[in-house]
Structures are given as structure tokens and as C-alpha cells.
Amino acid sequence: MIEKVLNASLEMFDDSEIYHKEQTNTSIRYGNWDLRRISSDRISGVMMRVKKEGKLGTASATTLDDPKALIDAARDSATLGEEVPYGFSTVTEFPEVDSHSTEIPDYPTSKMIAMCEEAKKEIKQALPDISLNVGISKNEERLQIVTSGGARAEHRETGFSFTVSAPIKGAGTSIYRYKEEIAPFAYPEDVIGEFIRRYRWTENKVTPATKRIPVIWTPQAMYMFTLSFATGLSGDELAKKTSPLMDKHEKQIFSEKLSLIEDSHSPRMGARGFDDEAIPTEKRALLENGVLKSYLLDLRTGAKLGARSSGNGFKKALFGGGTNMMPNPLPANLWLEPGDSSLNEMIASMDEGILLTGGMGFHSGNYSQGHIAVQANGFMIQKGRVTGRLDSTMLSTNIYEDFANVRTVSKEVELGMGGYYPYVLVDSMQVVGK
């Protein structure tokens, strides 16, 4: 069907691109210990981009069932569209990426429920008074992109995820742990054990004194670092000459302990052989021992800068995304190289510090310039042990200053937002408490 729509557009437009994504998802949700929902959803989305007399037109729909309506809407859009200096992909070969499991379609719902029930039983014995939420899901996705220039890109991926969480009494936040992989996995004992450990840490609340202290960034908190850094790498900021990384290529910008790789070709969650513009993704270093190696360009920003796309055009934005979005220059699946310390060793080595699990208010700060100021979520560390959850604590940092001084990086690596990260112990950051 997608070829039929493309062929119908060829006589009307100078250049065409059709993006079609189909998803199926089965999920089970427990709330406050009880089974609340079993659902199965099928979602489809289409976006068409065209060029007519140099102007860009777009149209979107939920399916390909009405080609004429989609093409007519794109034509009308192009009459008022902006002139664009780039064409759509003409690439015909893409890296082969294995991110699909044949086990997912037939994996029984009964096994998913059994995993949730087992988690309930184990957590009930340890933490009988909390309000427990458990979720498990399996999903499949098929993405097709075709262009009038000859690109034919297709990607299939699967995912299996397990999440356990519970609100902290009187805090307005929650403790959560999760696991997600391409294929089904066995009962996640490590996830449950760490959830119980961290919830027990919340029994006391601690407000640190206002000063600079060491901070361990968990993999779940590292999105604040990577999103801030990625904004500086973005072709948008480079084209506007507002990036703090202008003229920093091949220069030391962070600690030599940090090496950040775009690795979309390894069989992990988020692996892709092409971006959302049918441009091949690459395995490459963004940071190598703290030295800046690469920038992020899509077709639009590449054209502005007189360069090729680096395969970083994705239909995403800060904390969002969707089929009908225009691509933005963002990183592909990230991998921060691990070190040789364990999390427990990091905690034991600290006389005073913070284990940072997240931050409230990140989106409203000047993160594009590397400045982060958030209400800190996490735990206080005193004399080598966790003494309680943070209360009334603010954290502020300029990543280009503070991440130049990294004490150690963990050997444990976990899935976080946008990639896989170890725990990173930064020498000191400004904390505002009592």
C-alpha cells in the first residue's frame, strides 16, 4: 500500500517521502496491589512530506487507506509551505540491525500476570504497608520509510518491559525500578531487590546543608546531562551560533573518564539502522575520553550548515515525540562507557554526598547552555552509607564545568532515557538545602 501512495504522488510533486509506523502492545497494570487493567492496542500513523516548486508540504493520517486525501492535504500544505534547500533520502542500503524477537508475538499473557503476582508476593513480605504498582508489557513495531529518490527503509523491533513503583509517603514522588529488553526475560530478581532496598532508604528524610558536595548521577538521572549536551551538539544551535560547543570539535570539554558513543547497531533497545528520514545511522563517538568528536545533524540542519546529515533526524522533542512531528537533530541510542567501580563502592567511599535519581523542573532551566537547576530527587549519603531520602533540596550545575571533574564511573550499566549509562560520581556540585 505504501508503494501505491508513493506512486500516486510522483506526478504531482518534485520529491516525496512517506513515513508509516504500526505498533501493537499488550500491557498489564496493577495499582495499589490489585489488577487494574489488561489491554491490547494497535496503533498506526502516517506522515507524508513533499516538495513542490521548492516548497515543503506535509500531511498526516492514522492509516494509508485514503491515499487521495493524504496527497491532497500535502499538496495544499505545499502551496503555503516554506522553501527548503534539501531533498529527501536517496539511500538504498542500510546497516542490518537485529532488534526483533520472534518470542514476543506468542508470549502468553498468563506468564506476564504470573510475573506480576510473584513480584507482589515478594514485595508484600518486605514492604506490606506501601501502595504498590506493577506493570508489564510486550510490544512490536514496524516502521517503513519510502521516498521518490529510491529509499526503501524498513525496521522491525520488539520490546518486553517490567516496572515496579510505589509513592513515597508524604513526598509527592515515587520509587521505581524497571527493566526492558528486546526479548522476554525471566523473573527480574535484581529489579525487585533494588526496589526494596531503595524504598527502605526513604524511611528517613534528610536536608543537606547548602554547599558543594559530591553527587552520584544514576543512569535514570543521566538524561539531564545527555539532553543538555545533545542540545549543544544540535545542528539547530550550531546554525543559530548559540551552541556552547561552537569551535569545540576535538577539544577537551569533559573529564577523560567520559566516553559517549552513539551505538544504534548493537542488539539493544532503541537500535536502528536508519533515522526517521531514512538516513543511515552510524556507530561513532560523540565524546572520546572527554574530547568532543561529533555533532548532530538532520537533513534540514545539515543543509543550513553546508554538511550532510549525520543520521540524527528523529521525530522527537524534549520528553515527547510522534509520527506527525517534523524530525529534529537528536542522538541515536547512546552508550556511556562503563568504568571499574561498583555503586556500593562509590557509596562507601563518600563521607558526604548525594545519590541523584532525578530532578523536577529540568525543562524550565537553561539546559541548552549546560545550566541545570532542579529540585533534587534521590538520597543522602553520610559516612559511607545512605541515611535517607532528600527533602527540600535543590541542585544546580553547569555540566561543562562540573563534569570536567569526574571521580569515578561504575561498572554497572542500566537503561535510561535515550540509552544505556553507568553511575557517574562527580567531584562536587552546588546543593541548596538548609
Can you describe what's shown?
- Helices cover 20% and strands 39% of the residues.
- A hairpin with a 2-residue loop joins strand 18 and strand 19.
- The protein is globular, with a radius of gyration of 23 Å.
- It has helices spanning 2-9, 67-80, 109-126, 189-200, 223-233, 235-240, 299-305, 343-348, 399-402, and strands at 15-31, 34-52, 55-61, 133-147, 152-167, 174-181, 205-206, 211-217, 260-262, 284-288, 291-292, 313-314, 316-317, 320-321, 328-329, 334-336, 352-360, 371-382, 385-390, 394-398, 406-416, 419-432.
- With 434 residues, it is an alpha+beta fold.
- The mean pLDDT is 96.
- The N and C termini lie far apart (63 Å).
- It folds into 2 domains: 2-197, PmbA/TldD fold (2-Layer Sandwich), CATH 3.30.2290; 204-434, no CATH class.
- It has a 6-stranded antiparallel β-sheet with strand order 3-2-1-4-5-6.
- It is built from 9 helices and 22 strands.
